[in-house]
Prior knowledge:
Order of helices and strands of chain B: EHEHEEEHHHHHHEEHEEEEEEEHHHH
Strand content of chain A: 15-25%
CATH superfamily of the largest domain in chain A: Beta-grasp domain
CATH architecture of the largest domain in chain B: 2-Layer Sandwich
Helix content of chain A: 25-40%
Helix content of chain B: 25-40%
Number of domains of chain A: 2
Number of helices of chain B: 13
Shape of chain B: globular
Radius of gyration of chain A: 17 Å
CATH architecture of the largest domain in chain A: Roll
CATH topology of the largest domain in chain B: Uridine Diphospho-n-acetylenolpyruvylglucosamine Reductase, domain 3
Largest sheet of chain A: 5 strands, mixed
Radius of gyration of chain B: 19 Å
Oligomer: heterotrimer
CATH class of the largest domain in chain A: Alpha Beta
CATH class of the largest domain in chain B: Alpha Beta
Structural class of chain B: alpha+beta
Strand order of the largest sheet of chain A: 3-2-6-4-5
Strand order of the largest sheet of chain B: 4-5-10-6-7
Structural class of chain A: alpha+beta
Distance between the termini of chain B: 53 Å
Number of helices of chain A: 5
Amino acid sequence: MTEVSNTQVLELNIDINGEMWSGSVPAHETLLEFIRRRLGLTGTKRSCESQVCGACTVLVDNQPISSCNYLTCEANGKKLLTIEGLAQGDRLDPLQEAFLRNVGAQCGFCTPGQIMVAKPLLLHNPAPTRKEIAEWLSGNICRCGAYPAIVISVQEAAIELAAHKSDR
Amino acid sequence: MIPPFKLIQAHSTSDAVAELQRLGDDAKIYGGGTELLILLRHNLVQSDYLIDIKSIPELGSIRRANGTVSIGAAVTHRSLETDSTVREMLPMLASAESQVANIRVRSQGTLGGNLCFNDPHSDPATVLLVHDATAQVAGPNGKRQVLLGSFLTGMYSTTLEADELLLSVDVPRLPAQFGGSYMRIHHLQRPTLGVAAAVSLRDGALDEVRLAVGCVGPRALRLEELEGKLHGAAPAEISKIIQESKTSLKALLEPIDDLLGSAEYKLYITGVLLKRALHEAVHNATR
Amino acid sequence: MGEVDPDTGEFQVLQYAVAVDAGEMLHYKSAVAPLLGGAVMGFGHALFEEIVYADGQIMNADPFQYRLPVLKDLPALMQTSVLVAGDGPGPFGSKGMSQTTIVTAAPAIGNAIYDAIGARVRSLPITPEKILAALGKIPAKK
Lengths: 168, 287, 142
């Protein structure tokens, strides 16, 4: 039996967008608070804080997670990917390019979450049908109603990613 | 902000039970945290300690022994949705699990947490009841088994004692020749209604019938009286038998008026889905 | 165009079209985005969204009980027609447009439901429960 710490502060090592981060984090700190306040990565948004809206979506070991209700310490030893980590230097991810091309963002608040939840869909299912896209993305709310452009963006990104694969 | 707590890693069942005994009301079991962290944030629940059970090996596994699948309490909904053993042996459960909340909650939330919290508006319990699932519980006096129907006692309540831990749920597969169907009505974030049906046929008539309804009353329930009435009936009589059972169903299910709908509405759609699920189960049994 | 399930009262929009007089569009995709977005907001208004009060207190001010439209609620086919006659008071003959499509959704959906079931639901949101009540299958709420 191990009590992790008397002072509620935990030593964590997390791969964040490809770079190793080490430091001390309180046990009760959520991943969202960690990302926005500690790391200053504000692409991930705070909204409903109930795991309903999806604006806080990030990937932990390629699984989509609501960072608002996920303890930072759960990411210890794992890979965290935020919207800031999607681009490879100057090269945008096909999802990001498709969203730009199709005006998939209106106010832009839900957009990082939409992209971050679409990413594992395409990893898991490279040729999703419209219905499969709708099922997977229906957990991410867009008050502006940008859904039509969001679907097209995901469909185009899927085609783009498949084309990249066959180029190799 | 979630009020500060101390996180304790339990590496074995006896660890976890010992901590629960030691800390009493000051500790809560923590798995996925999808319900717990929200409750803590809103001060609906207070806890100085969270006992993390995700490092306990047997709680994270899905095992099959003969015709029964044993699902560890810390297995996530997403695992159940995608696991090949569950999809092959318990397809209705895999289907229900794939409809829980959203992909992010499913990636984090656990079956054990779902059952122990026992929110009435929930999917898995309804299907598990039709499988005659059993809960395996560990406490200071050792392990005990309890039928899931008895484990789930009411709205947000189970028979779990303060110093006990849910270890796993044992789910026997449906017997051969059975057809199953899970259907639900879903309008707000949590489901309004869930209906699970499993039937076998003999000479074209319903033989064994298992029915469960969830989300309408305080907890998911098997409809034993209706099951008895359907035994031996022809599929064409399903509609009439359900219609005739409306009064007793209302008494059993105790539907309430809430933001998900009026009691009359819930009872009405329960009748509709019972009929549809039974017919689909019959269709699946004949294949 | 939509479809009512007469036994559960559930309504699904199958096709939806908006026609807008914009005068001039300055950037096509940016113009169409809020036209469709407004339609989506209109779906929410027509079918899902409602602030519930009891004794002056809001009962459903939380994401679990206030229903917003999500991707699944949309038809696969959403069409936009934009009239650009250059006859508006704005730059290049443009007119006010964008989320004006919110307003027309509820009447269109209400009419589609009337066309489907022969009964009108005159209070928003048009929920499955109200459709079943309009069909006489359950008592209407007071």
